[in-house]
Amino acid sequence: MADNHPDFDVSWIRELLSQPDTRPLTNPPGHPQSKPSPGVSNSLFSETLAANSPDAIRAQFMFTRPVPIADPTTSSSSATISSPTTQPVEQCMLVSLGRGVDGKLGRAHGGFSALLLDHVLGRTAAVESGATAPATATMTVDYKAPVDTPGVVLVRGWLEKLEGRKAWVCGTVEGEGAKVMATGRALFIAPKIGKI
To answer: What is the pTM of this model?
Structure first.
């Protein structure tokens, strides 16, 4: 699991991925081996930041799992996302970061945390709305702690509310021990039918 990358062979990641409801995603959008949807390339993640690059994104692994019920960052409006009998699912991405994403030496540029959130929250909006390429209308990021490099982070995204073409999504960038480094909330707009 986790593409067998050595950076993911640590206890907190093994424990995270061993949960019974964790479902790996094979070649999701943005993965170097994925086939892009029409009009969507995700070349920033699949080529420019090049998974398995020693300098930027050294490895990435996407999976889904149920949103933890006791998640303190889930807002009270999350009840609107599904029927009471269905537990919501979150999109997750493990990312091994190299020093090529640094702002300050040994620390990822703050904008990179925003980029990771935008990527995972966009995927969440696409999955939940069924839209091929929803566009970010607005995103707020609150920075809680620096992201050390090299290192591995978990980026999580879940739906807060879906209304017509609008999807409100929330997420976090976390490290070992579920330490929250950044939180984000975004509004994505699905394209009108027949447009990308």
So the answer is: 0.83
